[in-house]
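Handout, page 2. Input:
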Amino acid sequence: MSRDTSYDSIMSRKNEIMKKAVGIDYTEFEREGVVFDYEGMMKKTGYELNQVREIEKKTSVGDTPVYELKNLTKLARKIGGRGKGARIFLKDEAANPSGSFKARRAAVSVYHAKKLGYKGVVAATSGNYGAAVASQAAMQGLKCIIIQECYDSEGKGQPEIIEKARKCEAYGAEVIQLTVGPELFYTFLKVLDETGYFNASLYTPFGVAGIETLGYELATWFRENENKDPDVVVVTNAGGGNLTGTARGLLKSGATNTTIIGASVDLTGLHMASDNQFNKKSFTTGHTGFGVPFSTNPDRSDVPRSAARPLRYMDRYVTVSQGEVFYMTEAMAMIEGLERGPAGNTSVTAAFNLATQMDEDKIIVVQETEYTGAGKHVSAQLSFARENGISIEIGDPVNQVPGKNIILPKHPSLIKAKELDMMKLKKSYIKNLKTDKGFSDDEIKFIAEEIRLSEEEVKRIIEEM
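Output:
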């Protein structure tokens, strides 16, 4: 008798499917109310940092080069004025086998899947992670299926996502492309159920543990070459795993005084799951449509408890505009000789503006780059934007309205990283916990750890709600 694969049947068995597909019983970490044992879950990987480094070395992942962006630093000093203009560095994660830092999280997930005897891996992602999982599966001899949200209902596809699909297929993966909408999670569960493959989710402890090596390498490199830890590390923030893993790696290396700043492209007003707005954005990841909701409600991911919890580690959160990132993408290519994709350049854009405000003896680090390709190029993205009714202008990016126009700054001094209100994000996190019963002392303690406030501050916020 064949298994029932109707929507209702699949969704009613999601916990059972997930447990089988990840090899983790998440219920063992659940405690009272909203509390769960986060560090206990992270230790469930069974791999210490040095072991993760050894796993990644098996497929030549990690130990990527660090560049000092001397010409961008000169420009930042010219704009910042006397005594200002921190030195800007960049860790070139495009040097990883699949062309992004995602190879780190994929290397551990695929290694673990093979160790447990799974025949293949599945990932639901429209980002670089699909190519990373496909690349690692090819290297380690497993089957691979990547599920993407790719098209609107008229069959129009984002050039960047289509580019990534081609890359996955080049590595031998099967790519299932969907239209935007709620079917993604159902399809993901159905494929896991039918194949019995491993869930190589972005949000498992294995994936986030893989990124901890990035933070470790940053701390090690700067101590060896600059005799200090970075003053600031800027991380492009989407689902939160990049920031969480990097920060954990820095902390494990003893870099406790480094400020962690998240950066996202501001797509305020656009709804990611909206059919008619899906193609109104030029960035498929690293934007506020993921960054804000996944920060304030991390367990909205495709596993019961996400290992990516950015509010535990983020000191500040800034946004930049699409036009500013396009401008900086071309500037980095033309004056630094580094042509890279848009996700990492979101952090470059933020770091450039932040550097103008920092003293010139400080160090600010962009911790990732990504590969670029035909669909990722600025020209392809802007052409697609025009086709979808977006006005392309040159002027002051402060006037940019997501979904209406893209404004390339007429001068680099107009690039401004906009500060998000961290307290507002933390209050949103508490609101999203959604309970009418109030919180016990243990729950208050857990919330305080989640959003880096004192227990007294958490109590006061709850009283004011």
